[in-house]
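Fold it.
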Amino acid sequence: MSGFSTYLAQRLISATLGSAGGSGGSAFTPPTALYLALFTSDPTDDNVTTNEVAGAWYARKATGSWSVPVGAGANSSSNSNQILFSAVTGAAVTVSHWGIYDDLTSGNLLYSDTVGTAKTFNIGDVPVVAASALSVQLL
């Protein structure tokens, strides 16, 4: 189960209660695309981007579509598509967390969570996220 970032929590509360938009001062506008980021440690709800994976091979990847919560009690969504990164070059990297952003290179962290057990990708390995492997849940 993923956690809301501080940015997203403030905007969702503001959007549903009609207030000014949290400490950022702007209302929430749904993103037109979502991007998966990989992290070497917890980005925290406050978006510590220094923990994002870095390297010539790495770039955030578009997540594609997400499942639609349907029916009474439905409160989660998962990625509908496989997400494929480029092969690791330069040096091995250990990924412990993932995050969903509203921009390819900067933007706002929306959700983040652990990958379960941290995974080390060696040179030549291709990080792949299977369809339905990521889940965002509203409690």
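The beta strands are 3-4, 35-39, 61-62, 76-78, 83-84, 93-101, 109-121, 128-129, 135-137.
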